[in-house]
Amino acid sequence: MKHYKIASIPGDGIGPECMKATQNVLNALTKKIGTFTLDFKEYNAGDEYKAKTGVALPPETIQGVKEADATLFVAVGNTAKEVILPLRQMYNCYANLRPAKAYPGVKAFKPNLDLMIFRENTECLYKMVGYQGDGWGVNLRIITKEASERIARYAFEWGKKNKRKKVTAVHKANVLDLTDNVFLEATRKIASEYPEIKYDEAIVDACAMKLILSPESFDIIVTTNMFGDILSDEAAGLVGGLGMAPSGNIGDKISIFEPVHGSAPDITGKNIANPTATILSAAMMLDWLGEKEAAKKLENAVMEVLKEGKVVTPDLGGKASTDQMAQAVINTI
Ligand code: NAD
Ligand code: IPM
Ligand code: MN
């Protein structure tokens, strides 16, 4: 029997609701499979914890993520830049995988979409280097060859492994030439090493439009940090909303899995948050841990519940609570 140490960070808002639902599902899954356990240890972070203690990301949490085999995080609120950004950067979780997949049964704008966004996760405007004066501010956008090549290689390797056809590098080199020519030189160089995968480029504004009109013209998108943040919420909107969008912050040693959505204060405490994004993030975590069969089984169970369409949360047009939807996944498992 294998035992994985999982750091769990529920955070704020709907975080605890989604985390509880997901852990119940995972416990049922591991019990059913019987070959491994997920030993959760919960850690504090976020707005509420900061209000109590003055710190948003305590040292125990930083250490807990380091010691764990993987981390499952849901969301924090206004302190996100003091919590999830430092974690992604300090542990070099450089590849942010953000799939936008439309599942059968979900009333998605684009019911056949299966797009993967690779977002560079350590630099760009997210370095948070800048200056402020009286009535002005500067946020520096830092792009390096090293980080750009690393994310491009990750995207092409994943594309090769998953038999994908095309990678599109999304940029704004027509204006941000100092930075985005560095990014494009890197993506072109890596593309040349993968002749079996088609490579093209799109300027981010036109890409945003095309994602609405003909998203099927994209297969894999690789892009810089801020563009990836915006395009991944847009892509989530094509496949049923943020309640459907999982992600993984992948590093060579340490990885953190989290839904794309935030703490959703507008629906907090009502037990109506869609737990799917967190459950699918957990499936990505299982896959990364090497438990491929378990990951598939979990995704399939979610797919069944969505396809049936009877026990789904209000964002998907249903009447079920967070707990009821999670229970439906458990029953399917
Ligand atoms: P949000 O993602 O929290 O919510 C956007 C909209 O989507 C809301 O209407 C919300 O109700 C809905 N939504 C989100 N998740 C849902 C789910 N699981 N089921 C059903 N509906 C869902 O974005 P926001 O409102 O712009 O931000 C709220 C707070 O979250 C902000 O303080 C922001 O900083 C923070 N945030 C944190 C993270 C993170 O910790 N990784 C990510 C994004 C936003
Ligand atoms: C996300 C979030 C975060 C980001 C914020 C809240 C720091 O929007 O995970 O997409 O911009 O990366
Ligand atoms: Mn975002």
If you had to describe this structure to a student in words, what would you say it looks like?
The chain is of the alpha/beta class and 333 residues long. It folds into two domains: 1-97 and 243-333, Isopropylmalate Dehydrogenase (3-Layer(aba) Sandwich); 109-238, Isopropylmalate Dehydrogenase. 44% of the residues lie in helices and 20% in strands. It has helices at residues 15-33, 47-53, 59-67, 80-90, 145-161, 177-192, 204-213, 225-238, 276-289, 292-308, 322-332, and strands at 2-11, 36-42, 70-75, 95-101, 114-120, 130-133, 136-139, 166-171, 198-203, 220-223, 248-250, 256-257. Strands 2-1-3-12-11-4-5-10-8-9 form a ten-stranded mixed sheet, with helices on both faces. Helix 1 (15-33) runs parallel beside helix 11 (322-332). The two termini are 20 Å apart. The relative contact order is 0.17. The mean pLDDT is 98. It binds nicotinamide-adenine-dinucleotide (NAD), 3-isopropylmalic acid and manganese (II) ion (MN).
